[in-house]
Specification:
With 229 residues, the chain is mainly alpha-helical. It has two domains: 3-105 and 174-215, no CATH class; 113-166, no CATH class. The protein has helices at 3-16, 22-25, 31-42, 47-67, 89-100, 113-135, 141-162, 181-184, 194-209. The relative contact order is 0.18.
Length: 229
């Protein structure tokens, strides 16, 4: 297999998130045959492994494009958080979700200091209310505590609504790329129909071999018709 052929195989692996071994592609002489091999891999019995692998490939592709990284540098254990400045977390988080096309994605959270501040304020409201009602207005400790708790809950609900715009931080439990695989699995790009496989094979072949679309046919020969080395 020549250099063009190797690059085509690598591009197909990247696009579909599968590994194409030499003995699997050496006799695939047309795009249709390549599509059959790829589709059979995507429909393998170990579907969970296949989907997880495909999800990682989607994440890796998105990270490579967004941050200009080499393929070998992007691994499941890569601490992607180190790549994202705090001031850009909201923007880049949305970009990453869009690139992966995930239907489910971790929600941004408030900075750590903000929930602590809200909790401290709510506790202060409870304490002041309880002490005032218990000492100044003799209504009993139970009633004072009930009113104080109601006001404390009200403060928390109010603060929750008013601080939505401060949700700009990526949750701390998402540190490495593998942490995002369960969300990338929800992407429509993880599951394939045969027609979708054919469409992407066509796109990759056209891009890699730089041939006009009018010349493309699924049963065309890579070497004889497309001039593949």
């Amino acid at each position: 297999m020549g250099l063009d052929g190797v690059e085509l195989v690598m591009a197909l692996e990247e696009a579909f998130g599968v590994e194409l071994k030499d003995d699997e592609v050496v006799h695939t002489t047309t795009p249709r045959m390549v599509g059959d091999v790829i589709f059979s891999k995507l429909q393998s019995t170990d579907r969970k492994v296949c989907q997880s692998q495909r999800s990682f490939y989607l994440l890796r592709k998105a990270v490579m494009r967004r941050f200009g990284l080499q393929r070998s540098f992007v691994t499941p254990d890569m601490p992607f958080r180190n790549l994202i400045p705090r001031s850009k977390e909201k923007e880049l988080w949305a970009d990453l979700k869009q690139s992966v096309a995930a239907r489910s994605w971790p929600t941004l959270v408030r900075p750590p200091w903000l929930p602590r501040t809200i909790a401290a304020c709510a506790l202060a409201v409870f304490s002041v209310t309880f002490l005032v009602l218990w000492n100044v207005v003799p209504i009993g400790a139970a009633n004072a505590a009930m009113i104080g708790a109601s006001l404390m809950i009200g403060v928390c609900i109010f603060a929750e609504k008013k601080t939505q715009r401060f949700k700009t931080r990526i949750p701390s439990n998402y540190q490495r790329l593998r942490d995002l695989i369960p969300f990338a699995v929800t992407s429509d790009q993880v599951r394939w129909t045969r027609d979708q496989v054919s469409a992407l094979v066509k796109q990759v072949v056209l891009e890699q071999l730089e041939i006009p679309e009018a010349k493309y046919q699924e049963d065309a020969h890579f070497v004889n018709d497309f001039g593949l080395d």
